[in-house]
Write a structure and sequence with these properties.
About 90% of the residues lie in helices and about 0% in strands. It is mainly α and about 170 residues long. The two termini are about 15 Å apart.
């Protein structure tokens, strides 16, 4: 029963974390509107579309993750009560898959994309390209910050799951 509380606490912590995607999404959208209303230079006006797109992407990510975790919290108790051992096994599998994803996407691909965008800034001189590359870097940094904390939480959760599994085997 303690693992159910641990799982629920982890999912609720995710519910607190994912709105940050939405918060940053709103910041990007508001920034886009500000560039649209106040931008006088070509460079300022070039930020309108990239910041709007980045903001909408972050909002979509945040809403999707929030909805998923709300559903997960509701499902945890049902799954646990049906078969506690299967629940732990499925959560271990899901946590391991998520940790692999973080290592591949968040901590390998995103830094490489950031580096590529920074390098491309040296070669592209049009305002739209510069604005797009800088906005991409900013959005990916936000994702790294939020997912860095999420990865730490799921790693700790994974350790708890393994302890329960080892305890059940003994």
């Amino acid at each position: 029963m303690e693992i159910l509380k641990t799982a629920t606490d982890w999912a609720k912590a995710e519910l607190v974390s994912t709105p940050f995607f939405m918060l940053f999404g709103v910041v990007f959208v508001v920034t886009s509107i500000a560039f649209w209303q106040l931008g006088k230079t070509d460079m300022a006006r070039a930020y309108i579309v990239p910041t709007l797109v980045a903001g909408l992407m972050l909002l979509t990510i945040g809403i999707g993750l929030f909805y998923t975790n709300v559903q997960r919290v509701k499902q945890f108790e049902i799954d646990y009560n049906q078969d506690a051992t299967a629940f732990v096994q499925s959560e271990i599998s899901r946590a391991e898959d998520t940790l692999k994803e973080y290592n591949t996407v968040v901590f390998t691909a995103i830094p490489l994309i950031i580096a590529a965008c920074a390098l491309l800034l040296l070669f592209f001189h049009s305002p739209l390209w510069k604005a797009s590359l800088i906005t991409t870097i900013a959005m990916l940094v936000v994702i790294l910050l939020i997912d860095g904390t999420a990865q730490a939480r799921i790693a700790a959760y994974h350790i708890q799951l393994l302890k329960v599994e080892n305890h059940d085997k003994n």
